[in-house]
Structure formats: structure tokens, C-alpha cells
Specification:
The complex is a heterodimer of chains A (65) and B (193). Chain A is an alpha+beta fold. Chain A is built from two helices and four strands, in the order βαββαβ. Chain B is 60% helix and 4% strand. The chains are: A alpha+beta (65), B mainly alpha (193). The structure holds iron/sulfur cluster (SF4) (3 copies). One iron/sulfur cluster (SF4) is lined by residues 5, 22, 24, 26-27, 37, 42-48 of chain A.
């Protein structure tokens, strides 16, 4: 897996829209504050990034984070 | 395809709510569930399980905008998810809510007569008298019904407009309930607001 999702935590509204669409259940909500991506599970498919109502998720090369 | 659970159908509740209020405005009180439950979950559980799993409103937007594609599905303006706009809208919303509660108080204390209409987008009065027979309950109980139904319908109208224009759940970035519950969670988790 080369790519991974990265959440803009400061702006995330913790709505959970991304969590609902993730096919790998790689997303959890950290105490109702923001979305967290499980590095082990994420396959970088980009579904979460497409769904996020604030467009606050970026899909980046794994080496970058 | 992921397995669907009973709570994945709560968007039907959102629709039912507006249907009920179209026939009898007193059903508007049921909307208090959508107001109090998220706050209790945030206060006691310290999470946004309501937004994340149970909110019928968010589901409705995802259903119509996502599944049925009634959404342009393009990036929303960045300011909509900015802190100042979200907290600003929450403040505005709560001020309008307070005004509505105050009007209910005026009716209760006899300072004002019951107005059998709803107000859309805080400005447009729409007659709604067929949904209520005068004298069924105390006037203030009826007044609050009209007021609360207006709040629910107004936010849904804005949400639907945002759904069509941008992403299905764009409303969720500025939703006062979402902002309020996240604030509570952040305070509890000692995160920066
Ligand atoms: S990129 Fe795909 S796998 Fe990774 S968190 Fe987003 S939806 Fe899940
Ligand atoms: S969809 Fe976007 S705003 Fe909502 S929880 Fe996920 S990252 Fe945060
Ligand atoms: S942000 Fe508002 S509309 Fe969206 S899921 Fe939460 S309570 Fe429902």
C-alpha cells in the first residue's frame, strides 16, 4: 500500500461521514473531537476524502507522513 | 456492501417528523429527542455517537445526496467549515432559538396571543393553522410546537440546499447540534476548541 488518508484534525467536525464509507473500517472518532485513521488498515482508496463534507481529508504518499 | 442495521434507517424518522407536523403540530415536540439525546450522549459519553451513527438528518442528506445523487458533490466553500463561521452560526442559531422560547413565555404569561403559523428561514411567515385546534392544549404548548417545527424545517431547508449545491452532508459542518456536541466533547477531552 503506497497511499494513506490524512485528516485535517484542527478543522474536522467529527461528523463521522468518512467513517461510514470506509470499506476497511480504518476510521475511528477520537472522543468526539476528530477522525483518526488507522495506518495499518487504510489502503488509501480515497472514499473518505470524497465524502468528507469539509473536504478535510487528503490522500498522500505513505512516505510523506 | 456493508450490512445495514436498524439505525441506518433513521432518515425515515426525519421524514416522518415533518409529515406528522403537517397534520398535527403538537408532534413537533418529538423533535426535542433530536435536541436532547445528542447533548446527553456528548455530556455523559463524551462522544458524537449521535452524529456518527444515529442522526436521521445526516442520514437523510447522505441518502438523498449520496445514494440518490441529488447533489452536485463538489467541494464546499472553505469558510463553511471554518471555526469562526461555525461558532458564529451556532451563536446566531441559539439567539433565534432563545427568541422563540421567549415568545413561548410571552404566550404563557398572557402577554401575547397564540400565532398559528410557522416561520421559515427566520423571516417568512407561513400559515399553518390547519394543524391545530385551538384549546386542545395550553396555548404556550402549542406556540412552542409551531416555533420548534419552524426551527427544524428551517435547518432542513438550508441543509437540503447545501446538499444540492455541495457535498451531501455539507450541512454537518455548520450544524449547531454538531458544533455544540463537538464543543462539549473537546472540553471533556481537554482538546483545543
Ligand atoms: S482512504 Fe479508504 S481505506 Fe483509507 S481511511 Fe479512507 S476510506 Fe478508509
Ligand atoms: S467526514 Fe471530514 S469532517 Fe467528518 S469526521 Fe470525517 S474528516 Fe472529519
Ligand atoms: S452535524 Fe447535525 S445533521 Fe449532521 S449528523 Fe450531527 S446532528 Fe445530524
Amino acid at each position: 500500500m503506497k497511499k494513506i488518508a490524512v485528516v485535517d484534525r484542527a478543522r474536522c467536525v467529527a461528523c463521522g461521514a468518512c467513517r461510514k464509507v470506509c470499506p476497511r473500517t480504518a476510521i475511528t472518532m477520537y472522543k468526539g473531537c476528530y477522525a483518526e485513521i488507522d495506518r495499518e488498515k487504510c489502503v488509501g482508496c480515497g472514499l473518505c476524502a470524497k465524502t468528507c463534507p469539509g473536504t478535510l481529508i487528503e490522500i498522500v504518499e505513505r512516505g510523506e507522513v | 456492501m456493508k450490512q445495514r442495521h436498524w439505525y441506518d434507517y433513521l432518515w425515515l424518522w426525519s421524514l416522518l417528523y415533518f409529515a406528522l407536523g403537517f397534520f398535527n403540530i403538537l408532534f413537533a415536540w418529538l423533535g426535542m429527542i433530536d435536541f436532547l439525546v445528542p447533548l446527553f450522549i456528548a455530556l455523559i459519553g463524551g462522544n458524537k455517537a449521535f452524529c456518527n451513527t444515529y442522526c436521521g438528518r445526516g442520514q437523510l442528506f447522505q441518502q438523498l445526496g449520496g445514494r440518490w445523487k441529488w447533489s452536485r458533490d463538489v467541494k464546499a466553500p472553505r469558510f463553511l467549515s471554518s471555526k469562526w463561521f461555525r461558532y458564529g452560526f451556532l451563536t446566531f442559531f441559539m439567539t433565534m432559538f432563545g427568541t422563540m422560547v421567549f415568545q413561548t413565555y410571552l404566550v404563557a404569561s398572557g402577554g401575547r396571543n397564540l400565532t398559528e403559523s410557522i416561520k421559515l428561514l427566520w423571516t417568512i411567515r407561513v400559515p399553518w393553522g390547519w394543524t391545530y385546534e385551538a384549546g386542545t392544549v395550553a396555548d404556550w404548548v402549542a406556540q412552542y410546537s409551531f416555533g420548534f417545527y419552524s426551527v427544524m424545517l428551517t435547518s432542513t431547508i438550508i441543509g437540503l440546499a447545501l446538499m444540492i449545491l455541495f457535498k451531501p452532508r455539507t450541512w454537518c459542518t455548520m450544524c449547531p447540534m454538531g458544533t455544540m456536541t463537538q464543543m462539549i466533547c473537546k472540553i471533556k477531552a481537554k482538546e483545543k476548541l
